[in-house]
Every structure is written in structure tokens, then in C-alpha cells.
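A quick word before the example. In earlier lectures we treated sequence and structure as two separate objects. From today on, think of them as two lines of the same record. Here is EF-hand domain-containing protein written that way.
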Amino acid sequence: MDDNENRSLDFKEFLKGLNDYGLLIEKDEATALFQHFDRDGNGTIDFDEFLITLRPPMSKARKEVVMQAFRKLDRSGDGVVTIEDLRGVYNAKYHPKYQNGEWTEEQVFRTFLDSFDSPYDKDGKVTKEEFINYYSGVSASIDSDAYFILMMRNAWKL
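And the structure line, produced from the sequence above:
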């Protein structure tokens, strides 16, 4: 559907894509659907907006275990995980790139944070929303609440 290959869909590409896939709906319905996917309201749908909109919501139990992990990381309690929060919670000394001298402790921490950070705004700070969004993606691929909770508890030693 991304005819100009800019990694997002404008409304024209969206309409053409709907037509190409045989989804014949009224223009006002297509507009409402487009606006539903265009979460930031910038007139385009990027890949992350597309995936987030399609993802099923996490159950209350899953959200709670994700929040337990976030609270464990957010040592300052300010709602944002930073490199300073990671000191004493995450041991960089076991990371292979730290052990072989390729990375510093700061680089290990930053790479760890970047994995949870928004893909287009890697600022070294992970908000509660970014953390939940990351685990919403993980959650979407795991059918069982019990398995997801067990995985989270084991991974975060909760």
C-alpha cells in the first residue's frame, strides 16, 4: 500500500490500498477508519501506529505484572526509567560486549533502555507508556495469561 515507500500511508495511499484489497467502503467510513489508525493525527499512518491499533488490549493481570516490572526499574519513582535508575538493578558487567571491552557500562545501559524506548525517539528515557507499549507487542504473541505472567516474573525476578 505504501506506493511512495516512505514507510507511512497518507490518505490517498490508504484509499487506494483499501480498493486494491477489495474493501469497498464509503469515503466517510474510510476517513473514520484512517483517523482511527492515525493515532498522532499527523495525516499519515506509520507502521507503529498500524500495529498498535491492531493489537489486542492486555488483560488487567498482564498490565499489573508489567507495572510491577516498571516499578522495579523506576527506582526514583518519577515515572521515567533512566540510566541512573538502572544502576544497582541491572548489572552491566555480565553483558558480553562489556566483558570484552567493546562497550562501557553506560553503553550497555543505554542499549538496554533503547530496546523499550519509542522507535523514533530514543532519548535514553523510558516512560511508563513506552514500557507498556513494548510489552503490549510481546503480549500480543502470547495466548495464555498464565504463561505471560510467568515469563514476566522470571525475566524480572518479581
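Notice the following. The chain has two domains: 8-54, 60-156. We will return to this example when we discuss secondary structure assignment.
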